[in-house]
Design goal:
The protein is 32% helix and 22% strand. By secondary structure, it is α+β, with helices and mostly antiparallel strands. Strands 1, 2, 6, 7, 8, 9, 16 and 17 form an 8-stranded mixed beta sheet that branches. A 4-stranded antiparallel beta sheet has the order 12-13-11-14. Strand 12 and strand 13 form a beta hairpin. The radius of gyration is 23 Å and the shape is globular. The chain binds flavin-adenine dinucleotide (FAD).
Amino acid sequence: MFDVIIAGCGPTGAMLAAELRLHDVRVLVLEKETEPVSFVRIVGLHIRSIELMAMRGLLERILERGRQRPAGGFFAAIDKPVPEGLDSAHAYLLGIPQPVIVHLLEEHAIELGAQVRRGCAVADLEQDDDGVTVELADGEQLRSRYLVGCDGGRSTVRKLLGVGFPGEPSRTETLMGEMEVGVPQEEITAKVTEIRETDKRLSLGPAGVGAYRVVVPAAGVSDRAEPPTLEDFKQQLRAIAGTDFGVHSPRWLSRFGDATRLAERYRVGRVLLAGDAAHIHPPIGGQGLNLGVQDAFNLGWKLAAQIRGWAPDTLLDTYQAERHPVAEDVLDNTRAQMELLSTEPGPQAVRRLLTELMDFDEVNRYLIEKITAIGIRYDFGEGPDLLGRRLRDIDVKQDHLYGLLHRGRGLLLDRTEGLTVGGWSDRVDYLADPTAALDGPCVLLRPDGHVAWIGDDQQDLDDHLSRWFGKPN
Ligand SMILES: Cc1cc2nc3c(=O)[nH]c(=O)nc-3n(C[C@H](O)[C@H](O)[C@H](O)COP(=O)(O)OP(=O)(O)OC[C@H]3O[C@@H](n4cnc5c(N)ncnc54)[C@H](O)[C@@H]3O)c2cc1C
């Protein structure tokens, strides 16, 4: 009997496993693939995800393996400088391949004590009042108190639950692969730059020693059962660029679509959904992995609280209440970005107009905060603007804020030095006189770094501690 079984060891499942282990929850991750996938999706970690890594002590490991780049230029690939003074200590994009992120997160989860079983596909589930019975493809049955489907866009768990996945099917497909080229780099750069002035859907860029990553629109929408061939790439390159650049010796070839869908519910009883299992959208803006990892970060401590027995009645349902609107917003911004990539005259005119508007600092900043997820404000009710937002990493005495959040607990920052976390001290840490830079006399942070309360009154604080952390001891 496990506390939680997670279906899928992608970035979402691995992050969730690690978050649950911080609270000693017995976790089993079931992954249908026997080996980690080496397929490289073009991934960068955006600011908020980098902050999450910093909050759990993973920053150094992840920085070692990635390359820091400017945080801007992601909205519909409109190239604008990053505005001054973005509200983060980590105001950059970290270019890092998805397999590396998954490896690091899985390693972290295992170090914390999560079990990962590969070659195990979840095939069926049945839930009752006490738990969930999970059946694997080979007929083996396992039992847990909760199950989380982190099993990607074609989620078996979501289908077994019968949760609707409304949205739009793929209208266009794109081919992506890594291969060698037969012409000099200057020739490629000149041609690609010329085409990208009007068509941002094509790109060819170096991807490690001797290889190029090629992204080119596919001829049509396929049933995706068959992987694309090198000939498909050549044909499309010739159709769009007038040359196939002598591409040869592919390392891998893939195709992806622009289907946009959002699960109607994130929870049915003891079974929850997170990551691509709950939402899919085109990769423009590079948000999908980030969104899934942030779902896991939101869900982890709440599910752990439920299992440890201190969760207030409504806590687990705040997962959907908070994360569903965030996904809705990401889906919408990718819809908008896809329109802006169209080569039709109307969308091109809108693109030119938006490009001009982005010269206004506020517009540029707003879009960057959206894509990087630092602009998110959960609805915690009436209060100052900071309430419901995440707090940036700030210097606190002898340390920095995120360094105090590694254990995934709540934190009270008390400038008055007169308050106490009292009977919640097993779940919430306390820091007196943290820093003058704090926006408010005292701030209560949830384990995910979002501001749950601002004030200076003990009774009001106790009410909010109860709201988020249950009954005191
Ligand atoms: C071309 C491309 C480029 C992208 N670029 C970016 C980017 O730059 N930035 C970004 O943030 N996102 C990007 N994304 C999106 C990102 O790849 C996904 O959002 C991310 O992989 C979702 O993570 P996940 O863990 O939710 O799902 P997945 O990564 O799909 O992982 C699901 C896991 O579940 C396993 N599984 C499936 N079924 C079962 C089952 N029945 N039982 C057990 N295991 C199962 C799978 O094998 C898989 O390992 C891109 C996507 C594409 C296609």
